[in-house]
């Protein structure tokens, strides 16, 4: 592991941090018994990261951006903060940084609970996160994929 990156949507971070709405209420949680709030999850993710990408900076005025950056700095004063405009983040800023430290991670308040066998629920189960791997003999053509996704979105919006 090289870096623990958290991506923060600066345009709605303050609003989401103030909400008492649960993950379950937004259908963002696989475990129906867990009543964890959106704000708790956001705080937890910002607190544990050693790099935070603040994106949608192009949608914030200077005052709002300063307020969000100040709050993030108070939540996690040691994290490196990167501002992103139009979702652009140079890969060299987030890959190969060497920022992750097992010694520092072990100091986190829930580290032992997460490390103990049987006490950790993988995020894939906890939040219903899934992934897939595309494999094919023929090359992947991003433009065709983009066209397909645009067609699907147009049908959904119609």
Topology (SSEs and partners):
Elements: E1 5-9, H1 13-18, H2 38-48, E2 51-55, H3 62-75, E3 80-83, H4 91-94, H5 102-105, H6 111-115, H7 123-126, H8 142-157
Parallel strand pairs: 1-2, 2-3
Explain this structure.
With 158 residues, the protein is mainly alpha-helical. 41% of the residues lie in helices and 9% in strands. It is built from eight helices and three strands. A three-stranded parallel β-sheet has the order 1-2-3, with helices on one face. The longest helix has 16 residues, at 142-157. The chain starts with a strand and ends with a helix. The model has no long low-confidence stretch (mean pLDDT 82).
Mean pLDDT: 82
> What radius of gyration results from the CA coordinates?
18 Å
Largest sheet, strands/sense/barrel: 3 strands, parallel
Point out poorly predicted stretches: none
Give the tally of β-strands: 3
Form type: globular
Task: Fill in the keyword field for this structure.
single chain, 158 residues, mainly alpha, 41% helix, globular
Short description:
By secondary structure, the protein is mainly alpha-helical.
